[in-house]
Amino acid sequence: MKVIVIGGIAGGASFATRFRRLNEQNEILILERGEHISIASCALPYYLGGVITDRNALIERTPAILKQNNNIDVRVRHEVTAIDPARHRLSVKNLDSGEQYEETYDKLVLSTGARPVLPPISGIETATNAFTLRSLTDGDRIKNYIQTEAPQQVTILGAGAAGVELAENFRQLGLSVTLVDQADKVMQPYDIELADFLEKELEKNGVDVKLGVTIQLVADSGRELHLSDGSVLNTDMLVVVTGVTPNSEIAKNAGLQLWADGHIIVNNQFATSAPDIYAIGDVIETTSRITGLPIPSLLSSAANRQGHLLADILNGEPLHYPGFVGVSAVKVFNLTASMVGYSEQTLQAAGITNYASVFITPFDHAYFYPNAKRLNIKLIYEPDTGKILGGQFVGENGVDKRSGELSAAIAGGLTIDELPGIELPYSPPYSAPRDPLNMAGYVGINQRQQANQTVKYDDLTETERCDGTFLDIRETGKTASGTIDSDLAIPLTELRDRLTEIPTGHTVYILYRKGLGPYNASRILAGNGYDVKIVTE
Amino acid sequence: MKVIVIGGIAGGASFATRFRRLNEQNEILILERGEHISIASCALPYYLGGVITDRNALIERTPAILKQNNNIDVRVRHEVTAIDPARHRLSVKNLDSGEQYEETYDKLVLSTGARPVLPPISGIETATNAFTLRSLTDGDRIKNYIQTEAPQQVTILGAGAAGVELAENFRQLGLSVTLVDQADKVMQPYDIELADFLEKELEKNGVDVKLGVTIQLVADSGRELHLSDGSVLNTDMLVVVTGVTPNSEIAKNAGLQLWADGHIIVNNQFATSAPDIYAIGDVIETTSRITGLPIPSLLSSAANRQGHLLADILNGEPLHYPGFVGVSAVKVFNLTASMVGYSEQTLQAAGITNYASVFITPFDHAYFYPNAKRLNIKLIYEPDTGKILGGQFVGENGVDKRSGELSAAIAGGLTIDELPGIELPYSPPYSAPRDPLNMAGYVGINQRQQANQTVKYDDLTETERCDGTFLDIRETGKTASGTIDSDLAIPLTELRDRLTEIPTGHTVYILYRKGLGPYNASRILAGNGYDVKIVTE
């Protein structure tokens, strides 16, 4: 059997090496139009920042190694210009020699990935100091520009993971960094409570963060950026990391079915609509393991996993892809942000409104052991079933640990009710007897049991607002963070002793900010005969 | 309803506070014979080492706080001397005043814990410099002795978690430390491959580790320790942390059913054999969530979880304890050791022989990002089903992350085949596109698929040994670590090109050390028509 793989960066190389291990006889050919295969793309920001100094380290496998170790033919700078699914033939162009030729295949694997999108800004195409960052070749260009032109001021357009990582690494080089995004927060899929911490961390480390603005015009060969707020930014360099689009043109031209956004449609064994053609990685849309909805899986870790699995499937194993969760981590100076599954933002974008959330800020390890820091955890779940929809984690330490644990819990189908039952490694340097993830579960359980006792302020009638007692139970000296005015303030620790101060006969509304306090207060009041509800904004 | 809790350290305090939150009306009384409740016992070594300086931080809750915040009565220095299950009555003694009185209960919760066992060594009872370490009072005594007597040389008997933590902390104080254990390795439940790293780390940091010896005689008021190997140790201080025994005497005297080792027998709702009497924590034996066998749950995290769950159960929730996994972490100077479930040692002790293991040593995060270190992972599973039986992890970074993830996977009932499918947070500072835990799963899957191709050297006949070709596939320059002699050495990377060197007609035995190499070599040879087996020692 002859198998051709188009694209050798992440999923393609994983597929090919696994497929070779499963079978010595098959002929395997990788066609890659770029200069390299098997690149650690996620490492590029750190290479630019000088954190990773060895360029060779970014190249996980060379064509020579794949030939030597795996008996796989690799042709870089060879572009597939057309696929003929009926005849099982490809048209290939050698980009260096210009030579064109045909190849036949028994099975074809599309791992063509995605490419950066340049936003339609007047002047950006002709700017001599503007770059995108996707391939090692892109990275080489930026590194070379920095070394030869010695820019002092760099502007990054796009405050997603790549933009934020670049900001940190350019600061590492001593550059002045401006980070621009049209959204009103950094790290787009994160909800505002978490993104706020990241924005502050960027600013604390000298990054000028400009949100809610776009670049409308690039002038002076890229040295002048005219923003939508009327201001003008002078910059020595512009890096655009605003998003990617799937490299699915050859698939489309060959008649394969695509989603409206250009991703290739595959089934749960990565088969496309054409016989003997499979696709993996950034170019496909798969289904969410959590909601079952279509979702792109734009992570190199997902591409690797899919490539490995497809090799088993093409080798005859009756396996299928369980779907994509989406688990990521980003270092933002001294903070780590990590996300699993959905945020409120992505749920809303998917049209899902039936969810509730837990937000807690426990210490990452025992508070009495040195260097304990607050860990911000937001967990989102389905209130009627307790199904976990996603988690967001921001803090200095132990962040990726909790997101990894949550992802394992989701893979096992655990509900939020089952989180407290997960035994997690405890010793004072590492955690508390009840790990933060256990605590998030306990709070979720309490919320679910109290679900009919929680109301949104906006859902209260005018009468309810007038008659009810709005109770603030924070300890004295805590600063206010909510916007609902309270009628009465009694610290939780004094509540039992001061019950007589609370009017009877009407509902007591406990103002919810975060944590277990409102829940504990509601238990005390309900246990003493009050009609009590927790009110959220 | 009146509920009495005997013992307020870990599970008892957790039970009481949760039970109060569930119901305001019940009367809750904690009787604790020691001086404190709610102590962070696991922090004691760090308090002694000066890492934790605030003694108050070790006391998570005082009786006054429990009264104030939770309306719970706590009486410390009150010992329960007898239980009368039929009459629902307790005999209580005030240890300070000597007063004796009776209490009645509707429900009784035994959270009496365990106490250190002093081994029967002649002279140890009268040594003035010998200590155990369990309670805060014990910790105070040791701290006081160090401050007033300024010992230079300390001997620790027992190289389990507490002994190892104490060794690190006493070194932190600049003391000379000798660690003695009768076993032939440190950190008893860990298998030797992992324990070896820990022993070396202790020695590297100046701890004199003496294994396979016992103390036979304590002389000169504790200043002279006569060891079983004939040597004599001079010491200024001796701390014995060799093990604990359950405080189940009052339960036994009241007629409750105990296991042979003295732990109280409970069902999966913590009910003992006596009506309205429940027990949690170190004093009970529960069942393993992995094997279903009886197992003590000697971790404060387990006691806390059990206390919380029992409160829900006594409040009428139809819940049950899913069983104990056993997840722990220990800091050993610059290393972390963490364990989940069973080791080979504990499996063998439980009479279980149907298991296989994976041992891999990947980097904890992307090898090209600074400070990547080897993480040692041993995973044990059931070969026929792929069920995960346990994991052991030793390394500098990311150790507790992987054990936590594995524990979550076990809680969700995932098999080793499903480990690669868990999406784990990747970015170069945190992991690789295939996380070490994913890799362990891949290796396990390969092993299972190859199960009939793996043989133990001892199981080979003399003829098989003579006829077969024993092939060493390590790269040139790697030092030997096994004891089976090879007939032929061909590095894996040269294997395809040098196939003609390998005799045909008889089985090729690939020597197994670790990792994926032998598997890959077997795939190449099998794919080229060889009868091939991987041979283990």
Automatic annotation (TrEMBL), chains A, B:
Highest taxon listed in the record's lineage: Bacteria
Keyword Manganese: no
Keywords: FAD, Flavoprotein, Oxidation, Oxidoreductase, Redox-active center
One Pfam family it belongs to: Pyr_redox_2
One term of GO molecular function: oxidoreductase activity
Domain FAD/NAD(P)-binding: 1-287
Keyword Glycoprotein: no
Family, as annotated: Belongs to the class-III pyridine nucleotide-disulfide oxidoreductase family.
Name by which UniProt lists this protein: CoA-disulfide reductase
Gene source species: Secundilactobacillus silagincola
